[in-house]
Amino acid sequence: MGGPRYRRLLTLALALSLTAFLFVQPGLLGAGINDEAEHLHAAWLMAVRGLSPLHGFFEHHLPLLWYVLGLGFRAGMKGPESLYWARLLVLACAALWCGALLSLVRVWSRDAARGDMALASFAAVAVFAQDLVVVRPETLAFGLLAGSLLIWSRRNGRLAAAFAGGVLFGGTIFASPRFVLLAPVFLLVEMDEGAPLQTILTRACALIAGTAVAGGAIIFWLVPLQDLIFDLRFSAFLQGIGLPAQIDMRYLGACILIPVLFGAIGLGNAAIPRRQLLAWGLNGALAWGVCLLSSGAHAYSQAFAPALLWTTLFVAWLESRPRPAHDPSRRLEAIAISGMLATTATLVGFGSGSMFSAAALTTSRRILLDTLPPGATVLLPYPYHPITADDASYWGASLMVDSPGRLCAAVDAYRQRYPRSPVSLPPCSLLTDLRTRRPSAVYRDLAVIGAPEEYFQIDSAIQTEYESTDSLAGAPTPTFGSYVVFRK
Questions:
Q1: I need a labelling partner for 190 at 20 to 30 A (CA). Which of 199, 244, 291, 387 fits?
Q2: What does the alpha-carbon distance between residue 127 and residue 229 come to, in Å, rounded to a whole number?
Q3: Predicted pLDDT of residue 29
Q4: What is the SS3 assignment for 241-294?
Q5: Cα–Cα distance, 139 to 389 (Å, whole number)
Q6: What is the spatial distance between Cα 439 and Cα 207, in angstroms, rounded to a whole number?
Q7: How many Cα atoms within 13 Å fall on the side-chain side of residue 352?
């Protein structure tokens, strides 16, 4: 089905469609990209307001992504339009990952394969893993990991490359600690090249040294150790709090199934050394097993990020082991890539016209921000937060809408579990914030987010003191007008 030129054009079209999708994507469940405003707001608070996480506002993620996003704010980026700069960062990280996959295929195959199937498998993950390849720490993590693998696989200056790769891998881990599960991939690259054991061990030590240097620098300059411990502990603690989120697992199933099908095609077209296949299988079992056990009841796609990206690396490795070109699997590969292209292009069309697209959300947030009086504060969760507005609460934009009362329940339980924690959290009372700070705009269903014992008082206060107006009538995302109410 077509020759090499046809495959190159097909792959180029897929890459362009994926680029467009990642820029306009609305979130596959129609709920919008909730987390992007949260991370952009945290970066704005740090870069513009000079606040520090935990001590000036609440956040339980590691802050490396916010320092990167903060560069845009320091360069003059303003308002909700910062989402566009952040989406460019997503595209850069995705391009790095695709570049790493293509490079590894060529290194492993001695330039005998191109990496089309590996690229298609990443497209499947990016398209179907709900809200994963967005402005989140996992995206920065796999961008840094891609750079690390590209440097590691260099054939020249291998010891220095191993150390430099370790520095980037240290950044990867401090962006998203789960990615430590992919550390064995570095050894798998060396095994594939048939390096002597002494060389593998020497380079592994250089990699570890680079990782340690990066980790030490980050702890010394960016993330105090006590804050780091709190972030890891609270994030793990939070997984057991609240009702399971209403996530349509069919999308997660699709992003698992499609790379598996691509892998099956690769298996039928590959000459595979059993020892290396076993090593890949063990790393895959480790990544998937740990991600599954640590995902908790909520099973967000980001919990599976290392495992999903492992599948793309595995497909890349299989693709680098081609049998003769006349094998029938070549036809299946072209069909699979064509199907992924059609899917991605279709979703670009739907996504660009969605009321939750990047443009619609940005315009809606801009209308909201312009409606607020100077110096106003808000008490809004991240789906409706204008990004560059001050909060009326220490809890900021981290108000969790995925389960009733989850934030305050998690804070109260954490305070009881760790009464001597170096990071001391204040009591969680949205009612107190509402009464004392008197925000200009609040979330209509704030009572559901707060502590259950405050429900009726919060609801009464909002009904009495706040009202819907027609100021958001022109918002392309109509739910802004439904859920954001203003002080009378």
A1: 291
A2: 33
A3: 46
A4: CCCCCCCCHHHHHHHHHHHHHHHHHHHHCECCCHHHHHHHHHHHHHHHHHHHHH
A5: 25
A6: 50
A7: 11
Q: Are 140 and 175 within 8 A, CB to CB?
A: yes
Q: Which residues of the chain have pLDDT under 70?
A: 1-3, 27-33, 130, 155, 193, 244-252, 269-270, 323-329
Local structure of residue 129 (DSSP, 8 states): S
Residue 322: strand pairing partners: 270
- The answer to whether the Cα torsion of 296, 298, 299, 304 is positive or negative is negative
The dihedral through the CA atoms of 355, 92, 139, 349 has a sign that is: positive
Provide the pLDDT for residue 253: 75
* CA separation for the pair 360, 366 (Å, rounded): 10
pLDDT of residue 324: 64
- Domain boundaries of the chain, sorted by first residue: 4-32+81-352, 382-487
Alpha-carbon gap, residue 443 to 479, rounded angstroms: 11
Residue 401 CB partners (closer than 8 Å, separation 6+): 34, 381, 383, 445, 448, 449
CA 360 to chain CA centroid, Å, is 21
- Residues 77-114 have pLDDT tens digits of 989 999 999 999 999 999 999 999 999 999 888 877 88
